[in-house]
Recover the amino acids of this structure.
């Protein structure tokens, strides 16, 4: 009995040490941090959607540290102001120079609810009036497997926020991106795109709703949109690339119910195996700032490397049809 207990304790201790070592080592993602160049983004203006939490927040922190003027497009001003305050405090504590408009680094909070086309239009209207340039647009915000809900304009929430809101946002900012070229668009998708399809006959999921399928469909739409946009932007010096961040410990799972008893185990596993937001944000930061991807467009990345897509994500006729329907849905074409 005593021997069995000792073996069990040793096994538990060994497991815990292994997990801790794995966590401390990290999943081996390249930590680029601007290649050690703290002024890589000086003079550049970056818009990040959903910048108050998770990957968007980590991306904002790093691009701010690299000297960018970062505009946080967030749906809740209070949450965004709180995140902005924390980011500035963390920057000060890290010993980086205080961002100020003169040096280039600056943090600006603006309201943007991607579940409302009028909010997207208001955000872009204000931005176009106030900003003389836009160097990088990062379409990062996302909703994951929420119960059936509709946006203000009557779209299924995940398709509405993850795809349609960003579709309108990008189109309204294209003129400024073109006049600021060379400029970049970075789209955050997910590997889960593999389980989605663009079912044109029920884009609002009124006939049936499956929350996993709808998330995957919206992330497939992100990829098809990026590739079609890259095709349309050829020769403009505006690039667009799409990425998957891996599995990252963020607030994305807010709609997933994990039973109370299982939660400690889930927390342990996610602590050990999921990426931190900073690790997960590396590919967004890379595509937004690295000279290595200058002029590269229409590609799909993970862990700062190009990856292959399934044929359904490269289907040009589906991408064109989705573009045309999206234009009508967001009111760009009547
Ligand atoms: N975490 C992962 O493992 C993972 C894996 C693959 C892909 N992704 C993708 O990564 C992106 C970032 O997600 P995350 O993991 O960082 O999750 P997160 O911590 O939940 O961040 C999502 C952000 O999107 C914002 N958002 C949600 N609905 C919005 C709306 N209607 N208008 C404007 N902003 C809205 C959220 O704002 P509030 O804070 O106000 O809700 C939050 O700032 C998403 O596109 C997600 O699909 C994440």
């Amino acid at each position: 009995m005593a021997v069995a207990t000792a073996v069990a304790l040793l096994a538990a201790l060994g497991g815990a040490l292994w997990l801790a070592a794995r966590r401390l080592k990290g999943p081996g993602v390249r930590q680029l941090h601007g290649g050690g160049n703290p002024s890589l983004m000086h003079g550049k203006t970056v818009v990040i959607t959903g910048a108050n939490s998770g990957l968007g927040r980590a991306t904002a922190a790093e691009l701010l540290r690299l000297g960018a003027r970062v505009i946080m497009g967030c749906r809740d001003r209070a949450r965004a102001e709180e995140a902005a305050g924390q980011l500035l405090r963390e920057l000060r504590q890290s010993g980086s120079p205080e961002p100020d408009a003169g040096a280039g680094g600056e943090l600006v909070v603006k309201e943007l609810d991607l579940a409302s086309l009028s909010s997207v239009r208001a955000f872009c209207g204000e931005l176009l009036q106030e900003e003389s340039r836009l160097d990088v647009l990062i379409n990062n915000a996302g909703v994951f497997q929420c119960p059936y809900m509709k946006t203000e304009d009557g779209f299924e929430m995940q398709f509405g926020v993850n795809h349609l809101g960003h579709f309108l946002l990008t189109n309204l900012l294209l003129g400024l991106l073109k006049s600021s070229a060379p400029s970049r668009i970075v789209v955050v998708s997910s590997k889960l795109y593999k389980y989605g399809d663009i079912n044109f006959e029920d884009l609002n999921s009124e006939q049936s709703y499956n929350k996993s399928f709808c998330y995957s469909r919206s992330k497939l739409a992100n990829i098809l949109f990026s590739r079609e946009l890259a095709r349309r932007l050829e020769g403009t010096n505006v690039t667009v690339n799409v990425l998957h961040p891996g599995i990252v410990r963020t607030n994305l799972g807010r709609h997933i119910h994990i039973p109370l008893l299982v939660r400690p185990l889930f927390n342990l596993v996610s602590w050990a195996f999921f990426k931190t937001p900073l690790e997960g944000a590396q590919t967004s930061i890379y595509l937004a700032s690295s000279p290595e991807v200058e002029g590269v467009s229409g590609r799909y990345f993970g862990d700062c490397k190009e990856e292959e897509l399934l044929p359904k994500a490269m289907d040009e006729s589906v991408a064109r049809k989705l573009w045309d329907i999206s234009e009508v849905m967001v009111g760009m074409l009547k």
